[in-house]
Each structure stands twice: as C-alpha cells, then as structure tokens.
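User: I'm putting together notes for a lab meeting next week and I want to include a structural view of one of the chains we've been expressing. I don't have a solved structure, so I'd like a prediction I can at least talk through. The sequence is below, exactly as it appears in our construct file.
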Amino acid sequence: MALTFSTAGESHGPAVIATLFGLPFGHALDLDWINSQLKRRQGGYGRGGRQNVETDRVEVLSGLRRGLTIGSPLTLVARNRDSRIDKAPDLANVRPGHVDLAGVLKIGSRNARDVLERASARETAARVMAGAACQGLLREFGIEVVAHVLSTGAVQADSPMGKGYTKIFQGADAARAARDSGEFGTIDRAHDAALKAAIDAAKAAGDTLGGSIEVVALNLPPGLGSHNHWDSKLDGRLGQALMSIQAMKAVEIGLGAEAAKRPGSRVHDSVLPMPPAAGRAPYTRGSNNAGGLEGGVTNGEPLVCRVHMKPISTLMNPLPTVDVSTGEAALASTERSDTCAVAAAAIVAECAVAIVLAQALLEKTGGDSMDEARRNLDGYLKSLRAFGGGA
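Assistant: Thanks for the context. Below is the predicted structure for the 391-residue chain, given as structure tokens.
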C-alpha cells in the first residue's frame, strides 16, 4: 500500500486531524518529536494572538499499539481550545490576497467565514503532525530533513546551506540547534537585530512581511521518484506539497531560477568517482546545482528546495475592499493574525517535504514491516556499491 495522508478540521472547529495510510508495521512513533515540531510551528518572532490561545499537543486515535505502528491508518489529533465555529463572527469585508473573495464566489456564499475556516493556516498543524511522524520514519533509514529561513522582507538573513550548493553542510542536528536557538528561523544569527527591526516596523505600520525558506534533506539514496510518469516525478510532487502551504507563491530546486541565466557548463554538476564507503551513491558530484534531483529522481546528493512566502493577507491597516453582503465599498476585515510567520512556515515546509520523501522511500523499498523495508533498502544500496565498483 502506498503512503498517503489526509487532513480534516477547521480553524474554530473541535480539532485538526491528520491521517497517514500505509505506514509499515513496527515504526516506533516519537510523540515527543511530533510535539516539539508542533511547538516550533507556533513559534517565531512576529506571531499573533492565536499562539497564546492554542498549545498544540498530539493525540493518537488509531494505528498505534505499545508505541509501534501496526500498519492500519495512523490518526493524529491536535485539539482546538478555541472551538466556537458556530459563534465565530461573520466576515463580509473580504481581504485582498486571501481566498475570501474567490471562495465566496466559488460557493455562492456572502460570508467569507464559510471559506476561511478551512483555508486558515491553522490547517498546517495537521501537516506538521503527519510530517513529523514521517521525519521519524525517515530517520530510521538515516535520512534527515531540516529547513531554515533565508530572508524576511528585505532582510537577507542566511546563506543557502552548503555555500553555493556544494557539500559543505554541517549536518542536520547542528543546523537545527542553531536555528532553534533564536526566534527568526535562521542558522546564521548575525542578522537578528535587523530582522527584529523589520518585523517591528511592519507591526507598527499595521503591515505584514513574507520571506524565503530553504529545505534540505540529507543522506537520500539515489533512485527515489520516477522518470517515467509526469505525476511521479519527485520535483513535481515536492513543488505541489510546498506550493499548497498557505501563502506560498514560488518554489525552486537547486539553483532554481538562477539556472535560466547561466550557460550549461555553469549549471550541470560534473560526475566524479566516490571514495569507498563515502556515501549511498556510487559516484559523487563536483557541485549540487541540481539540488539532488535530475529527471524527477534523486541522484544521491543533498536535496535542496526553496519556497517563497508572500506577506500574510490580514492587515491591521486594512486595504480597500467590498462588503460582499451589500456590494458596497469597505475596508477589509481584520482577524487575529500574525505580522510575520516565516519562521513557523519553515517548519511546515520541512514537514511537507518529509511526507513526500517518506512516500517516495516506501515506494522504492516496499514492505509490510519496517524490518522488510530495511532489508529491501539494504539490498538496493548493496547493488549500488557493486555498480560503482563495475561489478
């Protein structure tokens, strides 16, 4: 069975729910890790009042026995303390940049509350629960996924991991520890003062800020994804997962848009012999401009994705709009919201990538149990080593 997941719940409903179908038997689910990721999703400088209302903790409703997955659907829940969906105020003054207007036109309602409850970024708590569970599974195969903030507003606050996408990466644990020691989601802490000033200025003006995020996955084997079918290409699947996160407007892999400006000799990564036992692929690369993906398939280099987030749509200094209940000119409604949520969005992006990679890994390994999946991966890696030796 393929690994799939679904989400349920509304912003002011009783709970948000994530269900993972197709997890193999025998994975030791790390609830502490899932809770730590939920906490990271609620953190970061510039968050609003909702984070003082909700303190997310995961509950398991199905799919777990004595701490191990049993192969049935794994259902994870985070309860909403603010669950007044029937009492939440109507919203007719639609917010530019949000789904409010497009949504009410689509369904024929004159109340954007009917749209925004599901469209709210509160839904990302479900993706984080599912993605954190997938991160735990990937770790059992030696694979790590970590995200960090590259910029917020006009402040360029971090460098791409690996300095030009070469393999000078300090490792996921060290990168995550550096990132989590501050409030801005960056590994390089030298720009904290500039970031704080930019967010404070936006808040004072009733405005909001977006930014750019990078996600890196380490120790991936080559061969995940497919070159055969357009909807199985891993870069396409990653793009969909990242672009579907609220407020995301662009995705890049490796050099991304920069590759369009260079000649091929400065884009494509040379192939070099791999030192014995140095990695999972039989060969290495002189650079990683491809971001670990060629033709929709992992090539054994670190996976490098970037996603770009627009400013949040709810402004405390609202823009002109219309009241869809009357058709009259108005100012956009204001909701409890954030000035900046880029650091939190990095955690969502990290988890979204983990879901896609866990799906691709289990497609490659197969297996009804973790032991079977490990044996299958070990056999595949052994064949790669033999390939590299010319056998």
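A couple of points you could mention at the meeting. The longest helix spans residues 342-365. The radius of gyration is 22 Å.

User: Perfect, that's what I needed.
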